[in-house]
Specification:
By secondary structure, this protein is α/β, with parallel strands linked by helices. The protein has a single domain (about 1-175), classed as Phosphoglycerate mutase-like (Rossmann fold, 3-Layer(aba) Sandwich). The chain has five helices and five strands. The chain has helices at about 30-40, 55-65, 95-100, 115-130, 140-150, and strands spanning about 1-5, 50, 70, 135-140, 170-175. Strands 3-2-4-1-5 form a five-stranded mixed β-sheet, sandwiched between helices. It starts with a strand and ends with a strand.
Amino acid sequence: MTLYLIRHTSVAVPSGTCYGWSDVPVSAHFEEEASACKAELQGLHFDRVFTSPLSRAKKLAAYCGYPDAVEEPRMKEMHMGDWEMKRFDDIHDPDLQKYFDHFLDHPTRNGESFRDLYRRVVSFIEEQKASGAERVAVFCHGGPIMCAKAYAGIVPMNEVYNHIPDYASVTCLTIG
């Protein structure tokens, strides 16, 4: 199966803000970024097209010609819990350093660990693989894309944050 993972465009939130499950607006650069993404997808045909239910992913899917993409909640960004919409510099929580030191298994306060995110993304990927679909597109977020790259053996789990995909980028993975 070939899996195309399309990250949403840049967002209109201050740099350093946790916005995982929050439904935040896209930046003023949406049209320019989305246009380049659409051009990269031009001529490709997919058996199935999915989108995260968050508006930043749905908006890009619609712009790229997939207004009826199926919403897939497992492809939402990581749930940042109590830290949602707070700047990392403004979080005064003893769990913050624990999360940075052990992000794979230590969840954000009232949120998820990276491994929690990984499990739900892998569940989605394996379901698609079992379906017999050959080409699947998903409009989603950096976290799920990093999980898929780890699942495909491209990036070690403990190094995923060194491989955050660009906004409006297309990541193509062959899933055996």
